[in-house]
Every structure is written in C-alpha cells, then in structure tokens.
Amino acid sequence: MKNEDYFKNKTVLVLGLAVSGYNAALLLDQLGSKVIVNDFKDLSENEEAQILKAKGIEVISGGHPLDILDRSLDFIVKNPGIPYSNPLVKQAVNKKIKIVTEVELAYLISESPMIAITGTNGKTTTTMMIENLLNENRSKGKAYAVGNIGTPASLVAQESSVNDDLVMEVSSFQLMGVDKFHPSIAVITNIYSAHLDYHKTRDEYVNAKLAITENQTDSDYIVFNRDQEELTDLVTSTSAAKLVPFSRKKELGKGAYVKDKMIMFNGEEVMSTDKVLIPGEHNLENALAAVAVAKLKGIDNKDIEAAFGHFQGVKHRMQLVDTVDGRKFYNDSKATNSLATIHALEGFSDPVVLVAGGLDRQESLDDLIPLLKEHVKAVVTFGETKHQLAEVARKADISTIIVVDTVSEATRQAFGTSEKKDVILLSPACASWDQYANFEERGNDFIQTVQEIDQSVKGG
Predict the structure, then answer these.
(1) Domain 8-100 part of CATH 1.10.3720.10
(2) Domain ranges of the chain
C-alpha cells in the first residue's frame, strides 16, 4: 500500500457503517488512525459494529450527535448515501472539516493503475465489460471491478499490486467526496438529469460527475460520449486529459465509433457490432466505451472479440433470465428511471410485454409514450406508480393494461397475456424503494417468479 504514514495518528470519523464504512474503519485502524464510527441506526445488535468495538474502535449509534465534531477531527469518511443536507454534515462543512468518501481512501493507498467509470446510465455494464476485456488472455496481474458496483474499492486496493488494474464504478454521490482522486483513465458514459432529490440542482449533479477528471493531467485519458453535445462541451472545456471520444452515431477521426456495422478505434477495425451479445443501442455505446479503454490498455483485437463472445450481461441489467414456452424473460430491474427503460425497449424488435412500476418520485413518465407505441403490446404495472404508468399506457393506445400490486403478480399476469416469441421485460422506470430495499431484491423476485412459471409449465 502507498501513503500508509498519511493516516497515522489522524482522528477520523467514519459516518455511516454499511459495507464501505465498515471496511474503511478497519483499514484506517490498521493504518494507525484513531477511528470513530457513527451511524443513525441503533447498532447495539450489529455484528460488524461489535467486531469494530472489539478492536477498540469507538462506535456511536442511534443518532448523529453534533458534539462528535468537537473531537478535533482530521477528516470524515462519509457514506455516499448520507446527503450533504444532513445536519451533522452541514455543520462539518461549516467547520471546514474535510469530507471524503471511501473511494478517496482507495486511491490514496492503491498501487494499481485506476480506471474510473461514471455516468447516469450504463456505469455497471461498462465497468463489467472493461473488467472482462482486461482479463481476457491476461498473463500478469488481474483487473478488479470495484466501487459502486458492490465491492469496496479500499478492500481490494489493500492487496492489489502494480500489475493489477482497479476498474472502479463511481457514482455522483461518491465523487462529491474526492480530493486527490486521480484515475489514469476516466470514462463518462453519458449525463442526464438524475438524483435531483439528493443533489437539489442539475448543476451540482453534473459538477459531481465532472470531478472524475478534475485531477487528471495530459498524461491521462478521458473517454466520453461524443453523441452528447453538452457532455462533449463540458469535457473539452474542463479536462486536461487526452480526449478519447466514442460515438454510436458519427464516424470519428479518432476514438471508438461504428462504421458499416464494425466497431472501429482510431480508424482500425476491431470487431463486428454483432459480437456485442446483449441487446440495446445503449449497450453498444457501453461496448464502445469499453473498447476504447481496452485499446488504450493495449489489448489485442482478437482478445477483445473473444471477451465479448462470452459476455452475457450483468444481473438485473438487461439480463436474459430464461426462455419459457417461447417467451424470453429479461430482468432489467436496474432501470430506475424512464430513460433506462426507453433504452431497454429500443433493443427489441419482437413484441414486448412490459412490467413496470415502483417508487413514486412525482416525476412525469410521459417520455415513455413513443417507445410504448413502437415496441409494446401490453403493459403490466405494479407499486406506487401503477396507476400513473397505466395512464401513460392508455395515452400510448396500449390495448392490454393490467394493474396489480407486486412484481410477482405482474410477472405472472405478463406471462398469461403473452404469446410465443414475445419478450417479457421487467424494466420498471422507477426506483424500488416503495417495496424493496434495492433493485437487486426486486430483480431477484422477478427471477424467482420466472423460475416458478417455468416449473409450472414443465410440470403441466
């Protein structure tokens, strides 16, 4: 690990336990910091909190007492999900206490080259594509997908070496808490409006995304979506890194693009677009970003093609779950906004029975109407937005609209109203928090129901 002395004898507040907070606390303790952990929830029965206490780490739970800030803190490691509107965080900002997230710790200690990926949509799929490409036929070291994808970056950074690569998915929440964070290759898949309940303004959200390139120099690279004029203007005007554009729509002089159904990089044919097995134009964009990174890292075209040949997608993101009685079931539970559902629908030529619904964020979903008209034969809605989405479907002149309460009911109804060669697509267009802890739980509910339907069909 690098910079181990940086943390010695520092007093650090880890705000919010969770997985990243727990690993950050262990790491800081190992490096010689005096660590205090604080979580709003009562942790008296929490196993991880007891492990920390056994190591002599102070754990304060059941609230966020402001007097913690009187401890002469050197910095705070904040759980990304805790907003800056939190009273303790606001007070820390007023006191000018440095606030970082766990990815900053990972950067400070990592000996491995770092590739960071952000964007409104496509982060996880692009991250997994890059990890697969960099590991194809690799003879030395390994690429690790870490960060917002689920594996704490600081946990892997403790063990990885100069021969490895950290392929880090970073959210806007995490990027608001970086200081020295400096990836050698940064990727911005796209930027749309999102998470305004957290960021309050679109400008704050966009600026958080652009923090990925803030510390880059002209020896680094920024890979970005050239099809978005706003993003192109922002990157070209703010980044000191070498510009590496990708485009699904334009032939470019440099970067990654499509020409005659071939993926090109800097004028060289890399592979056919048919080798990208997961459906959707948005996944072709993700593939272009991943190819650009692979070429910058010196990966051969044959290895790029081979890696895509066995990349079947990421669970809960346009995941082909099963084919039952001629119907293909796709799990796109990660589609927590209407734009992600639009991208999903664009990927299908067969008729779609759409399963959608979830948390009501008081946002219009009318932008789904054109895609519903073009691709969807029936809509089954669930959750808080079930009636809103049913009204959207009526505006799109969908003849079959079914309103139920749960994902399981919706999946069974979708199968019942479908025909052979139809696609049954869970792409909710809404967050999951009305009924589930996260989108993974929602997707797993869908998968389990599909398995039950399959068993029922085979049993009959």
Answers:
(1) no
(2) 8-100, 103-309, 319-459
Residue that is written with structure tokens 């799929």 in the block: 125
Q: Six-digit token pair at 266?
A: 């800097």
The answer to whether the CB of 52 falls within 8 A of the CB of 22 is yes
Q: Collapsing DSSP states into helix, strand and coil, what is residue 418?
A: coil
Binding-site residue ranges for ATP: 119-125
Q: Which residues are annotated as a binding site?
A: 119-125
For residue 197, what pLDDT is reported? 65
DSSP per-residue letters across 252-286: -SSSEEEETTEEEETTEEEEEGGG--S-SHHHHHH
Map tokens 């303004």 to a residue. 201
Structure tokens at 178: 């970086």
What are 3's two structure tokens?
A: 């910079």
Superfamily of domain 103-309: Mur-like, catalytic domain (3.40.1190.10)
CB 293 within 8 A of CB 305: no
Q: 143: which 2 tokens?
A: 């690429």
pLDDT for 417:
97
Burial class (CB within 10 angstroms; exposed 0-12, middle 13-18, buried 19+) of 391: middle
Q: What is the structure's pLDDT at 423?
A: 96
Q: In which residue are the tokens 């959207």 written?
A: 392
How do residues 14-46 score in pLDDT, each as one tens digit?
Answer: 999 988 899 999 999 999 999 999 999 999 999
Question: Cα-flanking dihedrals φ and ψ of residue 107, to 5°?
Answer: -60, -45
User: Phi/psi of residue 187, each to 5°?
Assistant: -130, 130
Which residues of the chain are under the pLDDT cut of 50? none
CA distance 287 to 251: 16
What pLDDT shows up at residue 194?
59
* Superfamily for the 319-459 domain: Mur ligase, C-terminal domain (3.90.190.20)
* pLDDT reported for residue 419: 97
